[in-house]
Amino acid sequence: MKKIYLYARFQRFWHWTQFLIISVLLLTGLEVHGLYTLMGYENAFRIHNISGWGLLGLIFIAFFWYITTGDFRQYLTEGNLVEKIWMQVRYYMIGIFKHEPHPFKKNEISRLNPLQRITYLMLTLVGLPSQIIFGFIYFYFNELVALGMNPAWMEPIALIHTLLAYLLIAFVIMHVYMTTTGHTLTSNIKAMITGWEEVDE
Amino acid sequence: MKKLLLTGTLLSGLLFPLSEPLSAEPFHHKVDSLLISTTDHKKFKILQQDFKSGPEVTKACLTCHTEASKQLHRTRHWTWDVPMKKGDRLGKKNVVNNFCISVEGNEPRCTSCHIGYDWKDKNFNFKSEENVDCLACHDMTGTYKKLPAGAGHPAYQTTVFEKKTFPKVDLSFVAQRVGHPDRHNCGICHFEGGGADAVKHGDLDNSLLKPDRELDVHMAIGKKELNMTCADCHKTEGHQVPGSRYTPEAHDTHGFDYPLADNNPATCSSCHGLKPHKKLKKLNDHVARVACQTCHIPFIAKERPTKMWWDWSKAGKFDKNGKEITIKDSSGCILYVSKKGEFRWAKNVAPEYSWFNGEMNYTTFKTIIDDRKVVSVNHPDGAANDPLSRIWPFKVHRGMQPYDPVLKRFVKPIVYGPKGSGAYWSDFNWDKSISKGMENAGLEYSGKYAFVKTEMYWPISHMVSPKEKSLSCRECHSRSGRLQNLSGFYLMGRDTNPFVEYFGLLAISGSLIGVIIHSIIRYFTVKKLKKAGGK
């Protein structure tokens, strides 16, 4: 048993701020979509738009941080990625029940397993940016139509934005559950708060 | 004395800079009575005579205002005839409606709202200058009233009509007290369209004579209220009143009329511009597709019930003694009269909504109608994919009216006339009343009649509520809101795609169930392992 410093202060700030903004976006977005009434359409609409700008800003800062610190390398993988991902998936489907050790050890140089690397990379490079882009197309719909965009795109844009939101909820559910698969049930979450994680030696 | 419209308008134009939202400052500023006009009509000798008739007054007016009648001859108020692009002739003289159906044949009654004298039948001389009625619009005393069935003449002798007394009008008194039209001048016809107060339009009735700001934020009377009159928006030059229902402007793309005016000063945007929302700028995204009226007139007939249904097919029933029947509800609204049939009324009612690009499709007396469904007497043209269309509010007046089931066309019954003339209200015989009406109009009639369901669309522009009372987002952006029947476009908060919803539900519930199953297996296997380890 040892403690290692996994998450820099900025990473923790980024993670929890993103968590907060995405929660607000989901909460207000689904209200605007008409699933429930919580704060009222007007408020939900306004807060959703402001939060959208917030998320966009945060992502830019995060990109800047990852590029300048070189920490983006954490998301890169070498060798046979499919095989590595399969090892990790196999662990979650079989190994974990047999109390097998994690197939990839965490350390300061490599804190993400291959499945995490590909998932987070996709989320940060594809999932969230597309959601933000579709959101902003929706927000600036009138302006874009004035520039020549087909007004009939309203519906597909709205539907993709909604679908991506639902998929994001599914991701959050699995993501939160996965945090319980560390050394102890809460060691991962503690690490994301303090930066320090207990890992097997 | 009454308001000084022109100066008031000019002053307010200077007082409200363009970039600022319009404030609730009074629209008309009080000025010295001398500043109101250069003319005191009381001082004219020619107006001090004892006038015997309306045309005599007009002759006197024309001695100074020499071209006035020629100007009026060019207005729809005079001709009741509006040539349309497609070759149809509209205007009050020509159109079908589903209230009293048609003017032609019923002139002496209907033309009580004509700005002329003596339009008794189809031989009326539209070139007559002395038959233009100046006083109807310029009377400032409120004592000038046309007789209900006097072909546009006022009461020259005290007259009783349908139990109502119309006192003799003092023409000399009125002629000496003329001014710019005020709301009661317009209202006497436009508030009482359809024969009585509030019947026809839904957004125009006598409550607008003295409204509070909840009823109409522009016309509200009282301290710090705008106190605007009809002519402040329907800004008239040369007697040509802008803002006609026959040539409506559904989408003003010009905006502010100052410094450069367009041809319709009556649109909202003429004063409010194309980006009227200053605080919540995102609301301006609606302007291209939603008429201002849609959100800012949440209810019509706010104070007085308006007619929503008129069923002519029920007319002609009598009581046991053969007397005409009148049934009223507790508020005094007529539900049935033998002459006219069955009525339904509604007060403070939400309008209906439709895409509208400013073109109205009219069914005329020559149109072949499809009697298997509800016939639209007029129908707003427009669609979601037409960039000129906007969502507009309408009062839809429905009813049943006679038509020719063989020729499949509307018919023109004569309803008003003396006994024996064939007029329905005197003789109660549809066949006779229709034959006479069609003969008078020179139209073909098969000799068979039946009743068909109709609907008529009245665009709504008045009774604008204060902004706090305008529609909230959810009124439309919800599953079953005011726009639930409007199709052809995606509306946030209203529309969902079943695939997206089910796929989303599947993804979320799938991951939840997966997580739950996984954690249960984990719990039990770990327990088992611990036991085994313990041993």
List the helices and strands and how they pair.
The complex is a heterodimer of chains A (201) and B (535).
Chain A: E1 2-5, H1 9-32, H2 41-69, H3 81-93, H4 114-139, H5 141-146, H6 154-178, H7 187-194, E2 196-199
Antiparallel strand pairs in A: 1-2
Helix pairs in contact in A: 1-2, 2-4, 4-6
Chain B: H1 5-15, H2 54-64, H3 68-73, H4 76-79, E1 82-83, E2 89-90, H5 107-110, H6 135-138, E3 159-161, E4 164-166, H7 171-175, H8 183-190, H9 230-233, H10 269-272, H11 292-296, E5 306-311, E6 326-328, E7 334-337, E8 341-346, E9 352-356, E10 360-362, E11 375-376, E12 378-380, E13 390-404, E14 409-410, H12 424-427, H13 430-441, E15 450-459, H14 498-534
Parallel strand pairs in B: 5-13, 11-15
Antiparallel strand pairs in B: 1-2, 3-4, 5-8, 6-7, 7-8, 9-13, 10-12, 13-14, 13-15
Question: What does this 3D model show about the protein?
Answer:
The complex is a heterodimer of chains A (201) and B (535). Chain A has 201 residues and is mainly α. Helix content of chain A is 65%, strand content 4%. Chain A is built from seven helices and two strands. Chain A starts with a strand and ends with a strand. Chain B is of the alpha+beta class and 535 residues long. Chain B has a domain at 498-535. In chain B, the strands form four sheets. In chain B, strands 5, 6, 7, 8, 9, 11, 13, 14 and 15 form a nine-stranded mixed sheet that branches. In chain B, strand 3 (159-161) and strand 4 (164-166) form a beta hairpin. Chain B is globular, with a radius of gyration of 29 Å. The model of chain B is unreliable at 1-21 (pLDDT under 50). The A-B interface holds A 32-34, 37, 40-42, 45, 49, 92, 96-99, 141-142, 151-152, 154-155, 158-159, 162-163, 165-167, 169-171, 173-174, 177, 180 and B 282, 285, 288, 385, 387, 472-474, 477-479, 489-490, 492-497, 500, 503-505, 507-508, 510-512, 514-515, 518-519, 521-522, 525-526, 529.
Question: Keywords for this structure?
Answer:
heterodimer, A: 201 residues, mainly alpha, Fumarate Reductase Cytochrome B subunit, two-stranded antiparallel ribbon, 7 helices, elongated, B: 535 residues, alpha+beta, nine-stranded mixed beta sheet, 14 helices, 15 strands, globular
